[in-house]
Amino acid sequence: MSTTMTSLKPNGEADQVRIILWTFPRTLSTALIKCLSQIDGVEIWFEPYCFCSMAAREYRRAHGRELPTSYAGNETKFTEAARLLSKVALMPAGVIDPERLAYEGVKERLESSTSKYVIVKDMALSMSDKKYRRYLPDGFTHAYLIREPAAAITSYRRATYQSFLSAGYLVGEARDENKFDIERDNFLMDAGLFHQELCELWRYSSQHSKASALPKEGSSERSKQSVIIESDDLLTKPHEVLPKFCRALGLPYDQSLLRWDASADVAFTWKAAGDEVLRHNVHFYKTAMSSTHFVPANKRTQVQNVFEDVRRLAEKARPYYEEMYNHKL
User: Fold this and answer.
1) Angle subtended at Cα 206 by Cα 110 and Cα 111, rounded to the nearest 5 degrees
2) What is the tens place of the pLDDT at every residue in 258-291?
3) Looking at residue 221, what is its pLDDT?
4) Would you say 269 and 38 are in contact if contact means Cβ atoms under 8 Å apart?
5) In the 8-state DSSP scheme, what is residue 262?
6) What are phi and psi of 159, to 5 degrees?
7) Rounded Cα gap, residues 82 and 88, in angstroms
8) Shortest CA distance to 229 belongs to which of 22, 3, 48?
9) Which residues in the chain show pLDDT less than 50?
10) Can you point out the beta strands (E) in 37-186?
């Protein structure tokens, strides 16, 4: 399977630019796609495979069986998966569309898009199981957004703790933020695997893509390699990183992309696991949704000064982060 094939006009010119931006939580990816939503003719997809993955996990947790990857003939199972996922995600019943939780269907819908620019933002954890990688859509170039482990996991820990506490999921000593453990007390995503899952997917896509050097400066040619950017770079020098990112992927760039509207309304045009999913999930992305530009990060917290669970997971993640960092744009 070619992961960089593009749809071609009769004269051989590419008529579409299709990109999947793979990442993990708390990397500024939502702010980035809010920025890219300003591109004329762009279609944004918000974590379609991630919702499939979470639905499969909740179904497995509740029933001890695997959720099929095809919706046809399995409608009742997907209705149950949507109910379970809605409950854990604190969303009203009916917000999540059961039919959009099937890997096979996501692949088909992505490949059938006719928009000039298609950008999918998704989580690498949804492709950590090799059996799901056959549902990677043809015709897409893969890009990756990484973030320094201690910073990413600290942010995820904070957001998860606050969310779980308000939902009443935490009991006993876990209700104390100083004693909360992101591995022990979090059942949503395994933060200790974020960097590993992303790195392994990057390796996989690199092996299955046609080898090609990145375009030369000033060239209109798009990259056939996986493109990697780092969130700290994006925050501190967006005027350098964003145009390089766009050029490498075949996206149009203009300085006006560096500023955008504070309203979250644009997010409600993104395609997700339900038409109202993002409207009911704005709280988790509050900072990104209200952003207007990339703001330089505060001085990075030293690993030895963070919570013990963060330090432990950051050390585990660092080799994967450094491997990808060495290949960043």
Assistant:
1) 10
2) 999 998 889 889 999 998 887 766 556 667 778 8
3) 54
4) no
5) S
6) -65, -40
7) 10
8) 22
9) 1-13, 211-215, 219-220, 301
10) 42-46, 117-123, 141-146
8 Å CB contact between 34 and 291: yes
What is the pTM for the complete model shown?
Answer: 0.89
Residues 6+ apart with CB under 8 A from 284: 159, 163
SS3 8: strand
Fold adopted by 17-325: Rossmann fold (3.40.50)
Q: Distances in Å between the alpha carbon of 294 and those of 113, 137, 257, 297, 307? A: 29, 30, 11, 9, 27
Rounded Cα gap, residues 148 and 236, in angstroms: 14
SS3 149: helix
Residue extents of the structural domains in the chain: 17-325
Q: Tokens at residue 276, please?
A: 């109202």
Is there a contact between 54 and 82 (Cβ–Cβ < 8 Å)? no
By three-state DSSP, how is residue 310 classified?
A: helix
Q: What is the pLDDT of residues 75-108, one digit of tens each?
A: 999 999 999 999 988 888 899 999 999 999 999 9
Please tell me the distance from the alpha carbon of residue 25 to that of residue 198, in angstroms, as a whole number: 11
Measured CA to CA in angstroms, residue 5 lies from 9, 101, 204, 210, 224 at distances of 13, 25, 16, 9, 9
* Tokens matching residue 110: 């992505």
All residues at 6 or more sequence positions from 66 whose CB lies less than 8 Å from its CB, including other chains:
56, 59, 60
